[in-house]
UniProtKB/TrEMBL annotation:
The keyword Membrane does not apply. CDD domains: AAT_like (cd00609). Its cofactor is pyridoxal 5'-phosphate. It comes from the Bacteria. Keywords: Aminotransferase, Pyridoxal phosphate, Transferase. This is PLP-dependent aminotransferase family protein. Residues 1-21 are annotated as: Disordered. Residues 96-439 form the Aminotransferase class I/classII large domain. Residues 11-21 have a biased composition (Low complexity). One of its GO terms (molecular function) is transaminase activity.
Length: 450
């Protein structure tokens, strides 16, 4: 039972001057509300808020330079014409589509299916698409559906996207960490983790992967490893949860096929989002869940039942804006993001060049013990430092040197990455990148000086 103050009449006011009344004890709430995974982003935002003038490599937001408020109205008008001219809806139905509660699975599912066909060479039944309130909701729905009882577990390469880790906490789905190397998830370790989990009486249900430029590590899987992952999933009878927010932002050499596009056995549940490719404020994501159910329905239909009790439906106005965005680009997100991809390529080069100039053999901080990986796209670079890079060091970095970054330990659920930081370069200019790296070099010099 929730622990509250019973003698409310005599309870003193709190230090903020609020009137006396019920006080809840966090220890009596669900464990997720005080889990470090769920509180990590709040903590980082608080630190960033105290140092607004610092150069921030912390934010994983998409580039904002091409946003135009006036285009939102244009997207809505484009979608209105689509409803009227392409789908043949009358004025009442068009108005109802915009202003009323919407279909639980969403009404831009056919446009998303078109995007997957055009950009990913993946043909899906539009009815297998559930449009969600951001990709985060899609993760919660899938994990909630897969968790029957305490024996069910999910696997994920560590370091892992903190939003996915948070979703597992919310639904009480334990995560079995799998090693990640320069080429993505270690498939031998994945097979070993599955065997060990089963030996403990657990049920491994699925494995979460980000095959392209993963957040936070920036690493990518080879085409051969993607096929091998599918083969392993088939042998071990698990699902693959593929998350694909960054594949459009490659270095210019083209994109590898998604795991879903290779999937002939419907092993892959595919997460997609328009946060990085359209704009994050729309909060529109989706999940492709085309796995057949025993009664002839699709897994997507089961997820829709859960969504109907969670968010009922994804914002109709937000869907219409994203629908117009897709229509104006012939349902090709790759075509729509050409300019943004160029910005991310430029910024990635600036970060890698800047790190070499400052921490290479002839840089101002020689023999510093600093190293970094070299992603082929995406928004993130991981830097390894010769000292502990925890939240206290982040605060010191912001206060003394005016530079923010993300401690990698947050992506290991607090158990790993203690000397690593993630640099996100998506919203910075080349000049700000240079200034930020100068400040990072000053921090390193301060920490490693004899």
């Amino acid at each position: 039972m929730t622990s509250v103050s019973e003698d409310v009449g005599s309870a003193p006011a709190d230090p903020a001057g609020a009137p006396p009344g019920v006080r809840l004890d966090a220890a009596e709430l669900h464990a997720s509300v005080s889990d470090p995974v769920l509180t990590s982003m709040t903590l980082l935002n608080e630190i960033a808020g105290r140092y607004p003038d610092a150069v921030s490599f912390a934010a994983g937001r998409p580039y904002e330079g091409f946003y135009e408020v006036a285009r939102l109205g244009g997207h809505l008008q484009t979608f209105e014409r689509h409803l009227r001219d392409d789908l043949g809806l009358g004025p009442e139905d068009v108005r109802r589509t915009f202003f009323q509660y919407g279909r639980t699975k969403g009404f831009i599912h056919h446009l998303i299916a078109g995007h997957l066909s055009n950009d990913e060479r993946t043909v899906v039944d539009p009815e297998a698409v559930v449009v969600t309130t951001g990709c985060q909701e899609a993760m919660v729905l899938v994990l909630r559906a897969l968790r029957r009882d305490h024996r069910d577990v999910v696997l994920a390469a560590y370091p892992a996207y903190v939003g996915f880790l948070g979703a597992t906490r919310i639904v009480d789905m334990p995560v079995r960490p799998v090693a990640e190397g320069p080429g993505g998830i270690d498939l031998a370790d994945l097979a070993g983790q599955i065997r060990r989990a089963r030996a403990e009486g657990l049920r491994p249900r699925a494995c979460y992967v980000v095959p392209d430029f993963a957040n936070p590590s920036g690493v990518s899987m080879s085409a051969a490893d993607r096929r091998s992952l599918l083969d392993l999933a088939e042998r071990e009878d698990i699902l693959v949860l593929e998350d694909n927010p960054y594949s459009m932002f490659h270095s210019g050499g083209g994109r590898l096929p998604t795991v879903k596009s290779m999937d002939t056995g419907r092993r892959v549940v595919y997460f997609g989002s328009f946060a990085k490719t359209a704009f994050a404020g729309a909060r529109v994501g989706y999940v492709v869940a085309d796995q057949p159910m025993a009664d002839g329905a699709l897994f997507a239909d089961e997820l829709a039942k859960l969504k109907s009790m969670l968010t009922l439906n994804t914002s109709t106005v937000a869907q219409a804006v994203v629908g117009g965005f897709l229509l104006e680009n012939d349902c090709s997100v790759e075509r729509a993001t050409v300019r943004e991809a160029q910005v991310y390529r430029r910024n990635l080069r600036a970060v890698l060049t800047g790190l070499r100039e400052r921490f290479g053999d002839h840089g101002p901080v020689p023999d510093s013990g600093v190293s970094w990986n070299v992603p082929e796209g995406g928004m993130f670079v991981v830097v390894t430092l010769p000292f502990r890079a925890d939240d206290a060091m982040l605060e010191y970095s912001a206060d003394r040197f005016g530079v923010l970054w993300t401690p990698m330990h947050h992506f290991y659920a607090g158990d790993g990455g203690s000397h690593q930081i993630r640099l996100s370069f998506s919203v910075l200019s080349a000049e700000r990148i240079g200034l930020g790296l100068d400040r990072l070099a000053a921090l390193v010099a301060d920490r490693v000086r004899p």
